[in-house]
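Record pair follows.
FIRST:
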Amino acid sequence: MTQALDTGTLGRAGRDYYEINKTHVNMTRGATGSRTARFEALPKSIAIDLDRTALIVVDMQNEFCSPDGWLASLGADVSGSTAPVRAINSLTSALRPRKVPIIWVNWGVRSDRLNLSPGTQLTFNPSGCGAGLGDLTKRGSDPGAPSYNILQKGSWGAEIIKELDVAATDVFVDKHRLSGFWDTPLDSILRNLSVRTLLICGINADQCVYSTLVDANFHGYDTVMIEDGVATTSPQFCLDATFYNVRFCLGFTAKSADVVSGLPSI
């Protein structure tokens, strides 16, 4: 990315703005230090300021990724749900030393479910007669398996899968809707960290990841979905449509290797 990005400006020059041309978007807002990352993305290559960037990982939890979890119990094929692990671990290992915040946004519902509407509970209990959000269930199909409450904060199902590298210094946000922004402290946390650009990973790409990215865009954040850092149990056309919509009207998509290779030296 050696081409000067000086052919156009979007936003308020000197304050909140992008510098753009036909192939590149500079989202550093005038930052000139050594903390600029430049990498290939779609629909254009981008430059971001690491001092204003965070990585958000959505819903990489036992409930959605484990063959013993709730999603698998409904008949969903979760075999591909751990596909983003390598990309996510690559990003966290590269970004932590560079002091970029790592934020895990996960379902963690209240035990009394007082903030869950019937419409929200319907998705998890479509017949109204089964086990839904917060209900007691068995782990897997073994009758002797331990019980837990579905996606309740602190439960086995709500835990981040063990394949991911999680650090005590990371930030953890509980949510109770598809979006990580709705009725959570995520926006306040990001603003207190002076974050403007979000690299977003997790599952399902077309559901909770997408909803979080949409709300991030609506809140004014720059959004970059990591293509190999997301997966879904939905049909392939859902993932294709998600990438299309992100690139067309919500931000950018990029591959984890391109992001890592574009990072400045420590």
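SECOND:
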Amino acid sequence: MNVPRGPDRDGPWPDGSAVSVSLTFDVDAEAALLGLGLDEAKRYSAFTERRFGIARGLPRVLALLADHGIRGTFYVPGYTADRYPDDVSAIVEGGHEVAHHGYFHLPPAGLDSAGQREELERGKAALEKLTGSAPKGYRSPSWDVTEETFSLLGELGFEYDSSCMGDDRPYIETLGATSLVELPVHWSLDDFPYYSWGEASGGLMSDPRVLSAVWMSEFRVALREGGHVTYTAHPEISGRRSRFEALQSFVEGMRSTAEVWFATHGEVASLLRAQLEGTR
């Protein structure tokens, strides 16, 4: 059994920052619905909600990050890159990192060997074609990985993963014969469980203040520990007006509380790799 071990503090962070934060965004668009096998002609309204993420949510997110000089990591399914090349290019032009999130947002655990390879290779090719470079990081759709997933990530040259929950600090995740820098996630730090709603997802619609309270509490603990924390949002979810206002206030609250190193996942993985590998 792989039990993560690491230092009590992840820092020191660049420029004397007290804490590190990665704002990450899953730009699923219609890919996730197609991955569920939904028919657009029969579930048209659900598809329009996902297109809202591209038309309105993503521009709001990019404007927020630009206003604060923050570089984020955007996990993009290959299908999204193929269908919306101009919008994904705007992410790159904003100085942000684009990372891998499958092709049709298909969770690996539901795929056979050939299907897992196709999702990874096709998604990787789509991002590389659009951005001009291979993605360094991977986030599994639905945060659902297999040992074979990890083996393929190692084979395809990925440097880090952001799908697992074995710690609340960056660590080395080992699955089978493959070890990767892990930038852990958690459902409590994802907007989807708070806001998801619809025939495709079920769920509930929380007051945005609930999410803000939980996320700020996590930030305060990370600040005390000098640690790193990853937040996950979706443009079609947190790009809605009241939710976006909460996201905006949350970012402003972090800025006013402490000196924060807002970093992409690639930057954090590069900074901590040698330190983490030394704790294995």
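COMMENT: The chain is about 45% helix and 15% strand.
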